[in-house]
């Protein structure tokens, strides 16, 4: 499943006008990611795309993230991001992993602490985009680095 996402990433590309853009780096591995989110007027994630390069885990996790949060509200998306973070770091809190579906596959990352930043790069970028949108909902085309 993870290999499938890394070989054939979903929602790859970029968004133009009105999209929030976040660039994320993981220098310890060399992963790079650009993420674009277009928000609907009601705050839902209407469209999401990413581009980047790096290890299979970083690209697969970002691909799975886009599939998971597309169409969701900001609250739902950040709740899932928190659950994924708890899953890959092995911290006990967070929601029942069963509700994470395929994302549970990321759990194996907790045995490789140096890969945690690979697996969370896309999720951190997505949370930063949510933060930017919440701070400046009407501006569009804002951009940030994480
Ligand atoms: Zn990596």
Essential attributes:
binds zinc ion; Sufe protein. Chain: A; alpha+beta; four-stranded mixed beta sheet; 19% strand; 4 helices; globular
CATH topology (level 3) name:
Sufe protein. Chain: A
Shape: globular
Helix content estimate: 25-40%
Number of domains: 1
Ligand set: zinc ion
The assigned CATH architecture is: Alpha-Beta Complex
Describe this structure in words.
It is a single chain. With 146 residues, this protein is of the alpha+beta class. It has helices at residues 2-7, 56-69, 74-89, 116-135; strands spanning 20-26, 31-39, 45-53, 143-145. It has a single domain (2-145), classed as Sufe protein. Chain: A, CATH 3.90.1010. Helix content is 38%, strand content 19%. Strand 1 and strand 2 (31-39) form a beta hairpin. Helix 2 (56-69) runs parallel beside helix 4 and helix 3 (74-89) runs antiparallel to helix 4. The longest helix is centred in the C-terminal third of the chain and has 20 residues, at 116-135. The mean pLDDT is 90. The structure holds zinc ion (ZN). Residues 26, 29, 31, 54-55, 57-58, 118 line the site of zinc ion. The site of zinc ion has 8 residues, from helix 2.
Q: In brief, what are we looking at here?
A:
It is built from four helices and four strands. By secondary structure, the chain is of the alpha+beta class. The protein has one domain (2-145): Sufe protein. Chain: A (Alpha-Beta Complex).
């Amino acid at each position: 499943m993870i290999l499938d996402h890394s070989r054939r990433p979903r929602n790859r590309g970029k968004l133009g006008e009105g999209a929030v853009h976040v660039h994320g780096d993981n220098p310890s591995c060399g992963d790079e990611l650009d993420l674009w989110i277009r928000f609907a007027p009601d705050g839902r994630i209407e469209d999401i795309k990413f581009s980047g390069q790096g290890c299979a885990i970083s690209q697969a996790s970002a691909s799975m993230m886009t599939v998971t949060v597309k169409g969701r509200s900001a609250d739902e998306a950040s709740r899932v991001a928190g659950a994924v973070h708890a899953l890959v770091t092995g911290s006990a809190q967070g929601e029942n992993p069963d509700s994470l579906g395929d994302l549970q596959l990321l759990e194996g990352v907790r045995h490789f602490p140096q890969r945690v930043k690979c697996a969370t790069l896309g999720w951190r970028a997505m949370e930063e985009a949510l933060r930017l949108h919440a701070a400046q909902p009407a501006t569009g085309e804002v951009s940030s680095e994480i």
